[in-house]
Amino acid sequence: VFNVTSSEASLLQGKHVPIPGKSHTGSSDPYCIVKIDNEPIIRTATVWKTLSPFWGEEYKVHLPPTFHSVSFYVMDEDALSRDDVIGKVCLTRDVLVEHPKGYSGWLHLKEIDPDEEVQGEIHLQMEIVQGQGPPKLRCTVLEARDLARKDRNGASDPFVRVRYNGKTQESSIVKKSCYPRWNETFEFELDESAPGTLCVEAWDWDLVSRNDFLGKVMFNIHGLQAAQREEGWFWLRPDQSKTRMDEGSLGSLQLQVQLRDEMVLPSSHYQPLVQLLCQEVKLSPKGPGSMQLISLIEETTTAECRQEVATNLVKLFLGQGLAKEFLDLLFQLELKRTVEANTLFRSNSLASKSMESFLKVSGMQYLHSVLGPTINRVFEEKKYVELDPSKVEIKDVGCSGLHRIQTESEVMEQSAQTLQSYLGGLLSAISRSVKMCPAVIRATFRQLFKRVQEHFPENKHQNLKFIAVTSFLCLRFFSPAIMAPKLFHLREKHADARTSRTLLLLAKAVQNVGNMDTLASRAKEAWMEPLQPMVQQGVAQLKDFIAKLIDIEEKEELDLQRALSLQALPVKEGPLFILKTKGKGPLLPSFKKLHVSLSSEALSFAKTPSSKKMSFITLANIRAAEKVEEKSFGNSHVMQIIYTSEAGQCETAYLQCKCMNELNQWLSALRKVCLNNQGMLGSYHPGIFRGDKWSCCHQREKTSRKAWLGRSGTGHFPGGGEGEPRGARLRGPKDRTASEGRQPGRWPPSLPTRSLRCSRTREH
């Protein structure tokens, strides 16, 4: 039995960053980059023209047990030049361990010192050499990997400076490489009276400006005298000798970060619990006595973890084909303790949280098809919309020379017409979406409708069964997605202030329709009255939609599910730029935009989502999915898929994503579906073979791939000194689960590492 320990950090939100303006406008366009041990894994959306941005973005990443720190960089986006770095916040592993329930609060941004922004490792061999004369200290600098890129060409020109006892020696310069090899030896006469320390520094050579610091390693000679010889890969450390600006002068960042260390056993260990839960759900129609376990879970679950428990239970029962039955059981428990009809499903109970998670897991594609056109229209038109008299802004209208000021009533009338147009289009899209809604969602709403109708049969509660459905569909699914489309992947970026206000008013209107236009909802915001005719019309449309939505028979539900099970449903799909190159052919000059679809069988390519597949890569033939260095193509966010063709040749496809987050999502999806592939590579080149050499390490043998294919049962990778190499278990953007455990004597087949690269390899 192999137990795999996984560390997980949940990066919740950053907001209100009072930062000094970086442009002539006195404001900034801030966004955040999150790094795990110097590797960027997350980029938030940009919030335009503000000194107090709100992001509200939540991420979960899997970390290696040996990670050192999580850093948050606040950047100012610049369309004409490089983005400015405003400041950063760094949380070390020790700080997070001290707060087991999570770290939450405001943290001052600190100044960025280039000498502290180091990364990479260096491979050293040190020994005390005894001879006829005085003993000598011998230091052999073999190679380095993953060094920081200091030059405009996306690389560095590294050399090493070795210091001991007041004497300094330097290595040769390796041009344009972040993976240099030196294999140079330096000797110093050992001072046995005061051994002191040995300092090995890596520098980037510059012809015109001063050399850039790349990091250093310090060694205590006392320890070396005892061991006589030491060899390994060592982290390059920053130079922290400089003074900083006063804390707080760059602003602050509010974060909620939680680190969790979980022990995950093989799936067989959980089968008794899964069987017990499934048995209770299957027996639930036989009476309340069969609901003891789920009732116990609900009673003992705290408000802080209820959402997570609900999400995990929903995924478990979806996998077992019992999601509808599980939710039906929760509906019965909720109705059993509900006395006042107007409080039904209004609390954050396990039933409410589970249904909310169920819709997000099962209905995101449906959500996009219903809301997408209207949301895109709001973003594209960017109209000024306001109904609240206390917030109306009066502005000039008309052409040059004929300016006049719009009255408040004119602005509000125009706003009402615009909102009615958006709301009408959205309600029409919902009404037409019955067939697009997944069968399992329709069947679940049918059960909810039926249970509420049975529990509240009185005539005065005739609308309650409809409100029960809309309380989830409109209030907990459609409305939140309208207010924050970025968080539901409807848009790539957050809306500006004007668009956000329009979306908020539209979401309020959808909520009023979902509440069936009750008197209570009208009384809250009387200034929404201009939309009342459209809201009343929407209530009738929504009732008719729900009646059709729940009109699904058991046989129809089973037929739809059976048809879906026979299809190779896409795990992930979307437009990407692709460049294919065969093992012996030249590298093609440009990327071509195609629609890429990843299923459980193959990675396929087509011109459009509906067109015929042009080509595909069988998943079983994929040998690696990894990032590509930015300098390789001069483009960011490129990944490589190394695979074996039908003829047995090793080929590579390069895919360019539009952002860092999309790149990490694709890598995560690819690695999960290829988890059990045989012959996954033990290491890889992060660059490309251009001309007569690799761009990353300057090796001239293209056939050197054979040296890093890895042998049966053992992977090849550059050594990691003591224990695992840095990054060898890095799970951040790859989003692996801890259940991807090891087998005896070998690494996981899809090793998520920045270390497994083109450096000299050794057996693990």
TrEMBL record:
Domain C2 positions: 1-107, 118-234
Q: Which GO terms describe its molecular function?
A: GTPase activator activity; zinc ion binding
Q: Which domain of life is it from?
A: Eukaryota
List, for all copies, the residue spans of the domain called Ras-GAP: 305-515
Which intervals carry biased composition (Basic and acidic residues)? 723-739
Q: Where is the composition biased (Gly residues)?
A: 712-722
Region (Disordered) residue ranges read: 707-764
Q: Does the keyword Zinc apply?
A: yes
Question: Is Manganese found in the keyword set?
Answer: no
Cross-referenced CDD domains, in alphabetical order?
RasGAP_RASA4 (cd05395)
Q: Which UniProt keywords apply?
A: Calcium, GTPase activation, Metal-binding, Repeat, Zinc, Zinc-finger
Any Pfam family the entry gives: PH
Q: Where is the PH domain?
A: 569-675
Q: Which GO terms describe its biological process?
A: intracellular signal transduction
Identify this protein by name.
Ras GTPase-activating protein 4
Organism per entry: Monodelphis domestica
